[in-house]
Each structure stands twice: as structure tokens, then as C-alpha cells.
């Protein structure tokens, strides 16, 4: 039966069993009745009466399979009836007592030593309805068809878990026929008992599909706190469910909502994100730098005739760089790249996370696609202050190999310049040459990239249902980089042309629009996508490696005081908690059936003798 539960629930139940197991039988850990009671009973309920139900082979101890099988049974929708039947099955007298409120049911059982579970469940439903009806009639001696609010709470607590101080109890007066009458009609009373008897029906996304019209009115009234309300917010409806379950007083669960950080802690947290992003960005940049160099050289080619081109394609460029400049030629300009990529990637990742956290719905944890794109766009815009100086220095270092090769045999002497020399030559204003093209590239790139990355993790790799591994994160980051890189190649080509030093006889560009117009006129539309494949091969693995490292570093070196629990682990925990609450609710209902004559919800029940 354990296969009916999600793997995460089974693993958690196995952990609980190992924690409480207090004896050994046939070399395996087992639970005694006392250990079973400790493992399954919250403070207000004693579930030890169900030990015999869990101990299917009457061995006096429970194995791990027995325990998980019993917990699986608790999560069934008809668990209360199944538990009651299993516990009372050997005693026909007990079965008769359970349906004593219904004379016809008692007559049916009188001469039958045994009945099926299906018959029992049907009789239990009918008998419970009869008890509810008799309780109402007893509270309405005048036969008015109504009862006072004060009587309603006392009667309702006989059949459903309801604490006097709960929000539901405080709002019962809103169900009265009029503000002044303080009396509730029989139909409303039945709707209330039916509604609170099975909170799982309330949880459905479309309550009206499973609730009667009057139950819907009662739910909206109790949830909104307004008489005759026609609707209620999802949050207020969830509070009704929580109220039903909290009456059982289960073992308190850890609070997953993060506490607000102080101003200083917020600054430190953003600095922590910045540092993680810097390290991850440096790793990603170093991995793909040779591809970036090839991409830059390809984009800087201006000849329209293939025979006049220095490189035929990206592979040809890669080969010639190694032949003419050696392996180290593929890493020319890497130093400034690593120095600059740290703040560039760090600020991009930090701003994206910061904006997303501010526009994410705090109740549902959801963020709209437009919000995701806005966060990415703001991240892309913020990085340009670091990106542009980095790019222009890197590009000029990457092009030097070409210029030195072309200068061989000419009368013009060209010496190799370092990053510091190039920075001095450009000056502060020159470092931001082509910034408009850089914005045109980085804003849409980040908007597309981070949105795709988020949805790939959630919709393709099923984040939230399991913890994503290194390969999942790498693939999600790499795949997201493909459309983002290729679609923004035209802006990257324009930026490259604006930032390189034009060689003698080459076209000089005065600005973004001028560059776009001249490139189209002289080289055609295809020129805007020069280096596009190389850009994909560079950006895709770079961002895959960067985001993978960024998320893994967050897991391995969490910020002090922050929860180490990942979103998917938190979702799994909430699912297990909800499942446990449901199981506890069903156990309580079963105990009510077994001890109906004198049992009051919330009272400690002694184990069966």
C-alpha cells in the first residue's frame, strides 16, 4: 500500500518509524504499542486504540511496512469508516452501537453476526445523519426549525472539530437568519456540519463544483467575515481549512516564512549574493572564453567577398588563431575579462533575484511572466555600467592578433598593447563607446534569458517536485541561453563595430543608427547575424555554467540565518504536512465514531482494554 503515497511521504514516514522504533523482532526494528502511540498521537488525541488495526498479523509489534501501511490508510478519503470498521469488526455489539441512532440499521444488524465494509460504511453515514438530526431536534423543543447561536457551537462540536476561540466559532452569528434573531435554520446547520466534516473538499480549486449552493454560501460567509458574502479570497478560504485542522493541535511545524531582515542584514545578504555571482560568473567566463574570442573576430570581419575574408567560418577562425598565435592566443584578453566579469555577472544575478523577490506574490509564491521579464530587463540594464568598459577593452585585445598579422611586412609599426594602455587611450568617455548598443543587447537578452531559465526549471525539469541536480541546472541555463543569444546578435554586431578601432580603408561608424544603416547597406541583412552560432556556443554554455555554479554555491554556502531548505523541498514539506493533517483529521473522526456515546472532540481517549 505504501506505493500509493509519493516517494517523499514514504521516506518521511520511514524516518519517523526509525525515530520511534523501540524494539527488535526477527532482527528488524519494530514499534511497541507505546511507541506507536507516541509516533501517531498529537497532544489532544490518543490513537493507541488503532494499534490493533495497524498490527495486521497480531504480532504485538509493528514493522516498518505495517506502520507505513497504516499511515497510507489514514490518508484515504474514507479512512474514518475503514478504521472504525477494522477496530470494531470482531465485536458485532460495537458495530450495533455505532449505528444505534438509526432504528432500521439496528434491526438490520440484530441477527447478523457479520456485515461487509460497504454495508457498514453506508449504515455509518445514515446513522451519523440521524444523530445530527436528533441533536438539532433536542435543541429545538418548540419545533421552530431553528436553534440559538450558543446552542449551535455546542452541538457542532459533537460532530466536527471546532474550538470556541477559532475564527469560525467567532463568525457563526453571521449565519443567523437576520442580524437580530441570533437563530440559525436547520438547512444552514446541516450545510455547516457537512462543510466542516470534510475540509479536503474546500481545498479544491473550484469549490462550487463539490459544494452545495448553501455550503458555498456558508463557506464564503465564514471566510470573508461578511454576512451573505458571494465570494471570498483564496487566502481567507485557506484559513478556514487551517482552522479545521488546527483544532487537532498537531505537533507544531517549523515556520517556513522567512523573517524580515534588518537593514544591515539586507545589505549583507545582497553582498553575499554579489560575491556568489562574481565567483560563478568568473567560472562561466573562463570556460567559454576561446569561443568568445572566435565570435569577436568573426563579427569584426567586414569584407563582403568570401575570398577577401581572413576567416571562412568560426571553425576556420579557431584553427587560424591556434596556428598563428598559439593556444594562449585563444585566451588573449582573459585577464580583464575575469576582472570585469565578476561585477558584471554579480550585479546581473543580484538585481534579477532582488527584483523577482519584490514582485513575487508573497502568498502564492507565483510571479507573472511580465514580472519575470521586467526583473531580467532591469538586471541587463544594471550590468552595462560594468559590461561596456569590459567589452571594449576585451574586444580590442582580441583584435590585436589580426592587426599584428596584417602589419607584418608593412611600414607601419604596431606594438601589442596591454589592458591598462587601452584604458588610458580610451579615457572614461571612450570606455562607454557603444553603450547604447550594449543596452540594446543586454536588456532583451536578460529579459529573455531569465524568463526562459525559470520556466525550463519549473515546467521541463519539474522544480518543486524534486531537487534539481547539476546536469538539470546546467541544461536549463544552457538551453535558455540559445534563444536569448541568437535573437540579440544584431545588437551585439553593432556594438562590436562601434567599439573596435577601424582599420585603414574600413567604414567608420558614428553611432547606433549610423552603424545599423551602413552595415545593412554594405553587407546586407545577414551581416547582423555574423558570429551568431559562435555567440550561441559561447553564451549557452557560459550561462549554463554560471547559473549552475550560482545555485550550487547558494546550496553549499547558505547565508547565515537563512533557511537551507530549497523551494522544492519546502513544497514537499508542505505537501507532507498537509497529508499528515489529513491523516490526523481522519483519525479523529474515527475515534469519534468509536467513542460516540461519550466521546468529546479534544478529550483524551484511553486505549481500548
Topology:
Blueprint: H1 7-20, E1 23-25, E2 28-30, H2 33-40, H3 51-54, H4 64-74, H5 79-88, H6 92-98, H7 103-110, H8 117-138, E3 146-148, H9 149-156, H10 167-170, E4 183-185, H11 186-197, H12 213-224, H13 234-246, H14 263-300, H15 314-325, H16 334-359, H17 369-407, H18 419-430, H19 435-460, H20 470-487, H21 489-499, H22 512-523, H23 532-556, H24 567-594
Antiparallel strand pairs: 1-2, 3-4
Helix pairs in contact: 1-4, 4-24, 5-24, 6-7, 11-12, 12-13, 14-15, 14-16, 14-17, 14-23, 16-17, 17-18, 17-19, 19-20, 19-21, 20-23, 21-22
Structure description:
With 609 residues, the protein is mainly α. Helix content is 62%, strand content 2%. The protein is built from 24 helices and four strands. It has helices at 7-20, 33-40, 51-54, 64-74, 79-88, 92-98, 103-110, 117-138, 149-156, 167-170, 186-197, 213-224, 234-246, 263-300, 314-325, 334-359, 369-407, 419-430, 435-460, 470-487, 489-499, 512-523, 532-556, 567-594, and strands spanning 23-25, 28-30, 146-148, 183-185. The strands form two sheets. Strands 1-2 form a two-stranded antiparallel sheet. A two-stranded antiparallel ribbon has the order 3-4. β1 and β2 (28-30) form a beta hairpin. α5 (79-88) packs across α24 (567-594). The model is unreliable at 204-209, 248-256, 566-579 and 595-609 (pLDDT under 50).
